[in-house]
UniProtKB/TrEMBL annotation:
Bias type Basic and acidic residues, positions: 42-63
InterPro entries reported in the protein's UniProt record: Translation_reg_Com
Native organism: Rhodoplanes roseus
Pfam families: Zn_ribbon_Com
Region (Disordered): 37-79
Record's protein name: Com family DNA-binding transcriptional regulator
Length: 79
């Protein structure tokens, strides 16, 4: 549980589980009257690093002929 406190007087405003705040919250401190506005942290916009380590998974799906492994020949494809 995280304790959320007033930015001005440090009075306890509420307690919440980690990542429980989904939208913007505006709460007035009962002690000093300050409006506290809280927004959730946005996830990083960077792409996560690949787990396979080398980026070779894409290359392994193709044979020397250029067809994907497991691909059906054109004559047996469903129409």
């Amino acid at each position: 549980m995280e304790s959320v406190r007033c930015a001005s007087c440090e009075a306890l405003l509420f307690r919440a589980a980690a990542c429980a705040v989904v939208g913007t919250i505006e709460i007035k401190c009962r002690r000093c009257g300050t409006m506290n506005i809280m927004r959730p942290n946005e996830p990083s916009r960077e792409r996560p690093e690949r787990r396979d380590g080398g980026g070779r998974a894409h290359e392994d799906r193709f044979r020397a002929s250029g067809r994907r492994v497991g691909a059906r020949p054109a004559s047996t494809r469903l129409r």
